[in-house]
Amino acid sequence: MAEERLATRTQFPASAELQKPRPKKAPDFPILEKQNWLIHLHYIRKDYEACKAVIKEQLQETQGLCEYAIYVQALIFRLEGNIQESLELFQTCAILSPQCADNLKQVARSLFLLGKHKAATEVYNEAAKLNQKDWEICHNLGVCYIYLKQFNKAQDQLHNALHLNRHDLTYIMLGKIHLLEGDLDKAVEIYKKAVEFSPENTELLTTLGLLYLQLGIYQKAFEHLGNALTYDPTNYKAILAAGSMMQTHGDFDVALTKYRVVACAVPESPPLWNNIGMCFFGKKKYVAAISCLKRANYLAPFDWKILYNLGLVHLTMQQYASAFHFLSAAINFQPKMGELYMLLAVALTNLEDTENAKRAYAEAVRLDKCNPLVNLNYAVLLYNQGEKKGALAQYQEMEKKVSLLKDNSSLEFDSEMVEMAQKLGAALQVGEALVWTKPVKDPKSKHRTISTSKPASFQQPLGSNQALGQAMSSAAAYRKLPSGVGGTSQLTKPPSLPLEPEPAVEASPTEISEQIRDK
C-alpha cells in the first residue's frame, strides 16, 4: 500500500512536466460575417447578379444587420445608377458603424452625385473629424466647394490634400479653380508643378500646352503637346491642338491632315468639324466650310462660337439673311459680346434696316471698350446717313482706343483699316463726300462688296478660356479675305473654336472609396 502511494507520488510530477496546454479550437466566424468572402469574390469579379443573391441570403440570415453585405449592395446600386437607394443603404451602414469614416465618405459621395453639394460638405466634414489625414476627404471637400462657388475654401482643401498626398487629379482641380477665376498665370504654375510630379500624364501635358497656346507662347505649347503625343500618339486632344496651331499660322493643308487623324477617333466632335470648316474658310472654299460648320452646329446646337463662325462665313458669301439668323442665335447665347452686335449691324445694314443697325452698333459700343473697329464702322454708318456730329463722336472715340492700344501693345493695325479711317477723318474735317467704293486691287476677290459700312477689320481673339485658334471677328471679314485668314488681321488667325469647350467644373469625388473595404 505504501509502495503504491510512493509510485503515485513519483509519477505525479513527471506527468506534470509532460502535460502541455491543448491547442484551442479555431473560433467560429460570427454569423454576421461568414459570407463576406463570397460577397467580396463575386463583387471583384463583377458578377453582380450572383453577388446580390448571396447578399440577399446573408441579410435574411442576419436580419439585415450585416454591415458588409449592405455596403456592397449600396455599391452595386450606385453602379446601376440607383443613387438614392445607395444613399439610404450607406446611411444604414453609418448607423451600424458610426465611427467608420469610410461609411460617411460613401454617404457624402452619394449626396454629391445627387447634386446636394452643401449636404455633402457637411458629411465630409464629419468624416474628417474621424480621420484627419485622409487626402481623399480633403480633395472631395475641395470639389464640393468648387460647385458651391466657394473657391477660397476649395483651394485650402485641395492644398491640404496635396500636403497629405500628391495626386494628379488634385492638381487638375486646383488648376481649374484658377481658370474659373481667370488667372491663367497661376493655372500655368499649378500645371507645371503637376507635370513635374507626373511627367507622363498626357492630360496634364495637353492642358499645359493649351494654356501656353492661349498665352501665345507657341514654342512651349508645341513642346508640351509634342510630349503628350510621344506618350500617347492617339491622344486626339493633343492632335487637335497641334492642328489648330498649324491652322492659326495658315498651314491649312497640314492642319487638315491632322484633323483627318482626329476624325477617326472622335468623328462626332463639334470643335473638330468647326476647325475643319474654318480651314476650308481660310482656303476660300466657302461651301465646304458651311457644310462642316452645319455639321458642327448639328452636334452642338448651343455652342455660340459655331454660330458665330457660321454668321461670319455667310457674311463673306453676302448671304446677309442667313448671317443675321446665325448671329442672332449666337447673341442669345452670348449677349455680352460686342463684336457679335457689330457683325449683326453689318448684316442689318446690308439688309437696308438702318434703324436696327444703329441700335446694334450702339449696343456693340456699350459692350466693347477695346476694339476701335466697332466705333469706325458705326461712324461710317452715321456719316452715310448724314449724321456727321455722331460720326465725329465715334471717330474720336476710335482714336482714343487706337492710342490706348498703341501705348499698351506693339500690335500693327491693318493697313486697309488705317486707310479707311484716314478717309473718314478727311471727310469729316473737309465735309466733302469721298469716293468710298474704291476699286479692289485683287481681281480674284470677286466676293468683296461695295458698302460704306464695311471697312477692313481690326481683329481680336475671342475672350474664351481655352482658346486654340479662336474665332476672329471682322465687320469686313466678308469684304476682304487675304490668303489664309478670314479678314485682314494683325494677328493673322483664322476663325476656329477652342479645342474642347470645358464645363465650369468637370470633376467628381475620387473613386477610391469605391473599392471594397477590408473587414
From TrEMBL:
Pfam families: TPR_11 (PF13414), TPR_8 (PF13181). SMART domains: TPR. TPR repeats lie at residues 168-201, 202-235, 304-337. GO terms for cellular component: BBSome; centriolar satellite; centriole; ciliary basal body; ciliary membrane; motile cilium; nucleus; pericentriolar material. One of its GO terms (biological process) is gene expression. The keyword Oxidoreductase does not apply. Keywords: Cell membrane, Cell projection, Cilium, Cilium biogenesis/degradation, Cytoplasm, Cytoskeleton, Flagellum, Membrane, Protein transport, Repeat, TPR repeat, Transport. Residues 1-26, 443-519 are annotated as: Disordered. Part of BBSome complex, that contains BBS1, BBS2, BBS4, BBS5, BBS7, BBS8/TTC8, BBS9 and BBIP10. Interacts with PCM1 and DCTN1. Interacts with DC28B. Interacts with ALDOB and C2CD3. Interacts with PKD1. Interacts with CEP290. Interacts with DLEC1. This is BBSome complex member BBS4. It comes from Propithecus coquereli.
